[in-house]
Structures are given as structure tokens and as C-alpha cells.
């Protein structure tokens, strides 16, 4: 880490200037001092603080801040700190400029071919062959001599270039606006992030970017630390530093052992206060970011200069060992913690989970169509050329004369251009565009529905969701908790008791137990408006208890002032394992008192006494406990109340216990009270759940609450209906049912449980993860399940990550949960999830509408160009016209059809599931039906149109002849039919009324009318460049009439029942099993970029070549030997890295210094299916391509799991040579 920090100074000229002026701005520490301090860890950091500053309060004095009061909220002082120590902001990577995007759009192969052809055509058109020989060249240029039309030869080439420019600009503009939206989204996510700091003794929530060095920040469970700091005071603080160090164990922090807190790390338990010492680019995360950013630029420069020239100082250590190795290292992240920053960066640009289902299907479809188009265009060109050559040189018997060459070449170029245009029309480049537009549009609109989408593809996955596992508190309920029942002094009160009825001793103990044993950040503040409810700040369960104190006409603030937070002797904070929280205070007589509160059935087991009505102790035996559970707790729970037990214990001054032995300390308690807390169901939830069930989505409730409470709430919400066959299980029982004798989870057992499971109570985060994983991996039922999960706590991270779509709570959610999620619910409300489902389904339908339209045009345009070229040696639709049609189809149609707003009707059908093809039978029927209509019309016009309209035939026109009315009518009719078919395409499920809701989509209307207007201009005034000649009103009316015929024909098609057409195939299935393998790159591993993939592929081939022989010998041996025990658990080769690190691949002298895996890759929580590598070009010995899923038992880091399968086991050898 030290090297990294130092090396990064070269990227910041600022710190060096400050080094010359010590103690700049009157503060007692320079930036460089603080930076070097933050590089130390543990004992040495503590030693450095003591040597340099005395202690942490000495550091605070130097930074002119107070450990208790914080900074003065003085704008000038804050600004000065920003000037000297930097602001808490890491500058993002520069977005691509518009010109860069244009350049990228120009890289499209078909466009390049067109450009070249157009330029050749341009060049040739300026070459006029000498006049007298023109007869000798045949009739090729006969028509061109009229009234100087030869000069117009350049127009076609120029027009093609112009339309290419048009396409490029539109594409670039779309990319640019998408990028901008993403940045907007990103900044919105960042603005939402706030952090608690103390300024002027007040606890404030400030935006993360406003933190300055010297701020006193409050850290609590679930925070993502926004800056580096030194701990002043902490309670049971544990930090997950894996994002920086790759170590998955939680690190204990305390002011007297290891006080260093680093930005980008997660608080997993406890709370505390820290003084901020480094922000922005000077914090540990910032230093790595800078290195990555600068490193990236260095790499690019170095690649340009050639490998050896980069100055050694810039190179990370490994790079100087050997040219080959240096090259192989480039794509890998710095193991020091690139992972976290990568994730941060990716958040802004790349979706989380491999390709989404939809993108997979689309890519596959586009490739298939593209191939077909390529074949068609090649055949077109070949036929045209052959026909021309045979006719000119064989039939007419002409000789190729030198001076005629340019004329002939011009013909060939024209043929070539026709071929390329067929290709351009055939390739549906609008597909990716339509997806992007549709998703971006949906994401923007979903913001209004309180869904902040962090990963674009989550929005579309949500449309396929078949199951939702929801939290109870805050999502299904209002999360405004109040104590409604209590059991105090042997009496069960159904409402708040009058203070006078309670013994003062009980009341006093209760008030102290609640006020002290809850986070001091939890408060109840007066309402903002008159008549509103008091505001609850902090943990809602604690707010309910504090509210109870206020209802008893007491106040918690004086108690807290009497015993401030830093006087608390020891705090055991709440976590999902303990399900309780305890605080120890020192009594005036030198003894200690412990207050404890937690889940009633757990805490009552630790109680041995209870206070009676006079406030005296009475024995509390197991029999009394069972009695209490039956008479008090179960009735409360059945009313849907959450029961909390409040207890205490006294220790005398002489018998101080071992505070680290928690079980000993929190035992032998005396119960003060049991309270029942009500968290009312949100009024809109039952209706939302009914909608989900109607839409074929199963809602399950996963909660940490008591099973009776959970069941009561589930019934109120409508998750469980009376008379249904369902399961409500507790975490323990759930685990008993799904695990075998050895305690391992078995998928078959899980498959028996989850289909009926509706409520999982008293569940731990692991249970939630197990359930989600089990449902996703399950293969029972006709389709694979797509699972959405909601979560708010730090411990929900693994489940949120594992789910197909993770929803985090915007209000109650911790940073860790938000980090792991795909969508943030800004209002924490379940109904927003239903909105997300609606939008997701809408995206899917929009894409299908667009596909239906686009494919009809593709089929027709390609067939017309192809047959026209074969029969009349000239495509009826000219290159420029084709490009215009392509523009309507691709860009405009994707805008028009992809922005249809969703309707409630979308929630009336079942989800599509993962395997449903994109193009259903109904759509196929529509596509072929409309294509047949259009082809019939166009071919009729092409061959007998001149008779019908009584005009000259446009067939067999010589080169450069003026545009004919005949071909203009064909072009115009074609476009009219497309326009009306666009209206048909609005419905894909065979509905009759295609105009339904058309006015709710202004974009659609304006695009259709706009296209129509431009078409009029092109036909009437397009002239030579568009090969159009103006049409009369009558001809226009005929074109329109044929176009409207599309709508009538649409009704005819809708009448034919799809079920009768067995011959129609569906198309656009999801990627097959094998392809899924390539895409299921494990989540922890970021998608490998292309270069890296090629590199690795190369390495594997190389290793394979070397090993083929030795492996085959081994296989023979293995089969002879009887070592079959290794075949039970295929634990090896789980990812491409391990594949290469298995013993028979380590050619030691060569590869030992290639880091094949980054230690940070395997997240301990993810017992994830690590997918095999992308299929390599040679398919002959590829165990991986045959689609074998291999699992790793997640907690071992991948590198160590490699060695778990013995090199001698047959599995090893068989797998490598399959």
C-alpha cells in the first residue's frame, strides 16, 4: 500500500507544493503527514499517533476540531479545509466526447464498405470516356447524353455518403444521450448518499461530498465509510475490509488497538465516532482510484510506445520481469484492491450480471439475420455481375476495349453498391438501439415510480420475475412502529398503562433500560408540521420503545445527558446472530448494571427472575416461561405484534465478569417487561400483492420476526389465503428440512419445500440466501424461476447479489445493501416493485413490437432487391432509398415503438420466463402475412405497374438515366406500407384494435407524421439524389390506398387462428445451454475484456498442446487404477484461472509469475457456480464446452480450492482430455 500511495504523488502536483510550506493554513498537520499516517495499520498506526500527537484528541486539537462538539458549522473554515486537504470527491473518468462516439459509430463494417463503394463511384463518375468511342462500348451509356445529365452521375455517390453521415450522427447522438442519462443517474445515486457528522454539537446528515478533514463522523452498522479516519470512540465495532485487502474476515476496531478506519470499507457491526483525516483522492480508495485512472493512461501510452520503453518507475513491480509476462499481466486488476473501484466504475457503465436474458436472445437473433443477409447480398452481386458479363460480352459479342474500362467498372461498382445496400437493409442494427432506447426510457420513467435503477438490465429482468421474496418490516408494513400492548409487573396491558398505575421502581428501570440501551442516534423529534406525527429518526424498533417512554409521560433525553455515550462501559450491538442488544454502565457504587433488549423468546430463555407488581424480584422458572409464552407472547404475536423483552442484571463491584465472554455476561437476567410493537401493514400493499398473484408472481415473506407475528401480517397482506395449501416455517425448521444428515443443503429437499413456502420467520441472512439460491437453481416446474429479493440490512447483501433482481430500500437500507442491489426503492414501498414488474414487461413487449415491424421490412426489402436484381439487373429500390428505409425502420421505429407507456393489462398475463422465444407464433404469423401482402403489391407494380398507371417502364434503364415515375411509385408505395404497418406493429398478441392508446404516446404519433412529411419532400423534391421523379395527386392517392390496405390486411391476419398454423416456428430463443455457459461468467469476476479473453484462450491452447500427450498417458493409467473416489465432487477447474493452475498445467519454469487469479475474486458469501471459460476455438478436447457446471465450495479462495482435487484422481485427467 505504501508504494502505491507514494507513487501516486506524481499524479498530484498539489501535495508537493504543500510539503514545502509546513502546516499550511494554520493547521497542525500537513496533507502528506496525514496521508502517510493512513498507510499504517494496527499497532504501528497507534504508535505513530502516540508519538506524533500524543493521542487521538491531540490529533483533533491539531486539526482544530473537538471530539464531542465537532467542527463549527462555519462556511469559511470548511472551505479553507477543502482548499488545503482536498474535497471528498473522486473525479470520474472523462466521458467520451461526441466526436469519439462518431468515430466509434464509423467503425461499423457495413458502413465502411458503403463509404468505400460510394467514393469509388464518385471517382468514376467524374471520368467521362471520350465521346466518339462511346458507341463501341455498347448501350451502356446511351441515356446519359441527354441534356448534360452525365454531370449528375456523381450524385448517387454523394447521396450515399450523406446518408451514411446521417446514420452515424444519429447513432452517435443516441450513445451520447444514453451516456448522459447514465451520468445523471450516477450523480443522483451519489447525491442520495448522506453521512452523519457532528457540527456545533448537532448531529447532521450531510452529503458525502461535503465531508472535510477534521469532521467528527458517526459510524454505525451498515455504513459504507466515505472517507479515511481515526476512531475516537467505538462500541463493538467490526469492519469488513475485503474491498481493500481481500481478507474476508471482519476486523475488530477499537481506539486502543486498531483505530484506523478506511474509506470504501463496510461497517458490519457496532457503532462509533471517528475524526476524518483523509478525503477524496487522498483517501485510500482515492489513491487506488488515481492509480487505476493514471495507470490506465500509462498502459495506453506504453502500448503505443512498445513494451520496453515505459519508464521503470511507472511500472507496477511485476511488469519488469519479462516481456511476455508483462503483456499477460496487463488485463488483470491490481490485487491491492482494484476490485472495489472496478465495481464503483462499472456501476456507472456496465450492467452487473453477465448479459441479460433479453440481450442474449437479441444478439443471437441479430447474428442469424446478419448471416442470412450476407448470403443474400453476395448472391445478388454475383448474379448481377454474371448477367451483365454474359449479356455484354457473350450475347452481344463485344470486345473489352481499354477506353471502355471505366464505364464497365462503373457498372460493377453500381452492382456492388446494390449488394451492400441489401446487406445494410438485412442487418438489423436497430435491435441494440431499440433495447437501449427502451431501457433508458423506462429507467427515466421508473424514477417517477420511485425505482432508482442501478443496472439497466435489471429493469427488463423484472418483467420475467416469477417470485418475489420480500422483507416484512418497512416494505409490506409502514415501518412506523408503536408499542400497543405491554406486560409489566404481572399485568398484561392491552393499551398504554397510566404512569400512576405502575410502581415507580419498575417505571424508573424501564425508562433507563430503554433510553440507555438503544443507539444514541435514535431519537424522536417534534413533528415538522402542526398535527403531523412526531418524526422517528434511526432504528424504528428503538423509536417505538422511546415513544413508549414518552407515552408514559417520561423523557429519555435527560437520562442520556446524565450518562453520555462515551460513559457507556461496554456495548454488545444488535446483530442477526444475537437478535438482542446489551449495554453495560458503571453504577455509582462501583458495580455494573447490564441492560438488555431483544426478541422475547430468545431473551426470556436467559431470564431467571422477573419483577412482580411491587417491583420485587420473583423466580422465573422454565415452567413460568412456557406459561408466559402461551398466555402473553403468542396472543400478542397472533395480533401481528412484534414482541420485545426488556431485562437487566446487576454485577457487584467485587465480581467484575470477563466482558468478552458474552454468554456468561448476558445470562441470569431479570425481566422488566415484554412489549408488543405494532407495525401496521401499508394500506396499498394487499392490492399490490393481489396484482402480483394475478400476474403469476408468487410473493414470499422472509422476516426475522416471530412466526406468529409473521403469519398474522402475511394473512393481512394476502400472501397467505385461508384454505390454501401453504407452508409457514421458522428458520430452524426450514434448515432441518433442507439439510441431510451431514448438514449439507440438498437441492432435492429444497425442491420439496420452496414451492409451498410462503412465510419464512426467524430467518437468518444465510437462510434468505439459501432460499433465493435454491429457488433460482431449482429445475422443477416447467420453467426456471426468476427471483426478485428485497433487503435493507447489511446482512442481506449476499441474497441481494444472488437474486436475479435485488431491491434495496432507499430510506431504511444500509449502504451495503444498496451497493449489492440492482434497483433502489426510494420510498421503501412494495407497490413500487409491482410498478417495476410492469415496466419490465413493457420493455419486453416494446422490443417484440419493434422486432415484428423490423423483420417484416427486412424480409420484403431483401427479397425485392434480390429478385429485382436477378430479373431486371437493377434493384427497384435504389441504394439511397434503401438507406432512407433503413433509417425509418431502425432509428425512428425503435424510438416510436420502444417508448410505449405500460398499461395495467400487462399484469394480467403470466411471466414469459427465461426460455420463451422473442418472436412468438403470433408474431411470426404477422411478419410472414404482412410480408406476403407487401411483396405481392410490389411485384405487381414492378411488372405491370406501367400498364396500370399508363407510364413508361422503368425496367432495364441504362446507367445514369433520369429517375422514372415507375420506380418512384414502387418506392413510395413501399414506404407507405411500412408506415401503416408500424401502426399494426403496436400490438403483438393478436389484438384487434391497433389504435388502442395511440394518443398516449406522442412520440409515436410525431414520428409517423414526421416520416410521412419527409417522404413527401423526398418524392416531390428529392430528384436525382433520391432517384425520384415527382408524382401526381392521383398516383399519391393510389400509394396511400395501398398503404391503408395494410391495416385491413392486418385484420384479416388477426382472424386466422395461430393454433392452426403448426408449421410456423418460433424464433429468437434464449442462448442454448452451451452459450449460457459463456455468459454465466461468475458475478464476482468482472466480465473479462476481449483482449484478456484472447490472451487466456491463447495460454490455454498453449498449455493444452504441451499436455495432450502426458494427459492421454495419464487417462490410460487412471482408468486402470481404481481411484474412483475422486469423482464424487467435481471441485476442480471451477474457473478459467483454476483450470490453468491445476498441476498438470503448471509448466513451472515458465508460468510461475503470471498471476492467474486475483485474490479478491472469490467472495466468501458466494458459493457461486463458477462458470467455465469461453469456449476455445478447438472443440476437440473441451470438457468445458460440453456444459458441465462445476461448483466450488465458496469459502475457500479459488486458488486454494485448486489443490483440493488430487492431481492423481481420474477426474483430473479425464476432464482435461474429454
From TrEMBL:
<keyword id="KW-0812">Transmembrane</keyword>
<feature type="transmembrane region" description="Helical">
    <location>
        <begin position="931"/>
        <end position="949"/>
    </location>
</feature>
<keyword id="KW-1003">Cell membrane</keyword>
<keyword id="KW-0106">Calcium</keyword>
<dbReference type="GO" id="GO:0005524">
    <property type="term" value="F:ATP binding"/>
</dbReference>
<keyword id="KW-0406">Ion transport</keyword>
<dbReference type="Pfam" id="PF12424">
    <property type="entry name" value="ATP_Ca_trans_C"/>
</dbReference>
<dbReference type="InterPro" id="IPR023299">
    <property type="entry name" value="ATPase_P-typ_cyto_dom_N"/>
</dbReference>
<feature type="compositionally biased region" description="Basic and acidic residues">
    <location>
        <begin position="299"/>
        <end position="311"/>
    </location>
</feature>
<dbReference type="GO" id="GO:0030165">
    <property type="term" value="F:PDZ domain binding"/>
</dbReference>
<feature type="transmembrane region" description="Helical">
    <location>
        <begin position="415"/>
        <end position="441"/>
    </location>
</feature>
<dbReference type="InterPro" id="IPR059000">
    <property type="entry name" value="ATPase_P-type_domA"/>
</dbReference>
<feature type="compositionally biased region" description="Polar residues">
    <location>
        <begin position="1"/>
        <end position="19"/>
    </location>
</feature>
<dbReference type="Pfam" id="PF00690">
    <property type="entry name" value="Cation_ATPase_N"/>
</dbReference>
<keyword id="KW-0813">Transport</keyword>
<keyword id="KW-1278">Translocase</keyword>
<dbReference type="InterPro" id="IPR018303">
    <property type="entry name" value="ATPase_P-typ_P_site"/>
</dbReference>
<dbReference type="InterPro" id="IPR022141">
    <property type="entry name" value="ATP_Ca_trans_C"/>
</dbReference>
<dbReference type="InterPro" id="IPR044492">
    <property type="entry name" value="P_typ_ATPase_HD_dom"/>
</dbReference>
<feature type="compositionally biased region" description="Basic and acidic residues">
    <location>
        <begin position="340"/>
        <end position="352"/>
    </location>
</feature>
<dbReference type="InterPro" id="IPR006068">
    <property type="entry name" value="ATPase_P-typ_cation-transptr_C"/>
</dbReference>
<dbReference type="InterPro" id="IPR008250">
    <property type="entry name" value="ATPase_P-typ_transduc_dom_A_sf"/>
</dbReference>
<feature type="region of interest" description="Disordered">
    <location>
        <begin position="1164"/>
        <end position="1186"/>
    </location>
</feature>
<feature type="transmembrane region" description="Helical">
    <location>
        <begin position="374"/>
        <end position="395"/>
    </location>
</feature>
<keyword id="KW-0067">ATP-binding</keyword>
<dbReference type="GO" id="GO:0046872">
    <property type="term" value="F:metal ion binding"/>
</dbReference>
<feature type="coiled-coil region">
    <location>
        <begin position="1074"/>
        <end position="1101"/>
    </location>
</feature>
<keyword id="KW-0597">Phosphoprotein</keyword>
<feature type="transmembrane region" description="Helical">
    <location>
        <begin position="998"/>
        <end position="1023"/>
    </location>
</feature>
<feature type="region of interest" description="Disordered">
    <location>
        <begin position="298"/>
        <end position="352"/>
    </location>
</feature>
<feature type="region of interest" description="Disordered">
    <location>
        <begin position="1"/>
        <end position="24"/>
    </location>
</feature>
<keyword id="KW-0460">Magnesium</keyword>
<dbReference type="InterPro" id="IPR023214">
    <property type="entry name" value="HAD_sf"/>
</dbReference>
<keyword id="KW-0109">Calcium transport</keyword>
<dbReference type="Pfam" id="PF00122">
    <property type="entry name" value="E1-E2_ATPase"/>
</dbReference>
<keyword id="KW-1133">Transmembrane helix</keyword>
<dbReference type="InterPro" id="IPR001757">
    <property type="entry name" value="P_typ_ATPase"/>
</dbReference>
<dbReference type="InterPro" id="IPR036412">
    <property type="entry name" value="HAD-like_sf"/>
</dbReference>
<feature type="transmembrane region" description="Helical">
    <location>
        <begin position="969"/>
        <end position="986"/>
    </location>
</feature>
<dbReference type="Pfam" id="PF13246">
    <property type="entry name" value="Cation_ATPase"/>
</dbReference>
<dbReference type="GO" id="GO:0016887">
    <property type="term" value="F:ATP hydrolysis activity"/>
</dbReference>
<dbReference type="InterPro" id="IPR006408">
    <property type="entry name" value="P-type_ATPase_IIB"/>
</dbReference>
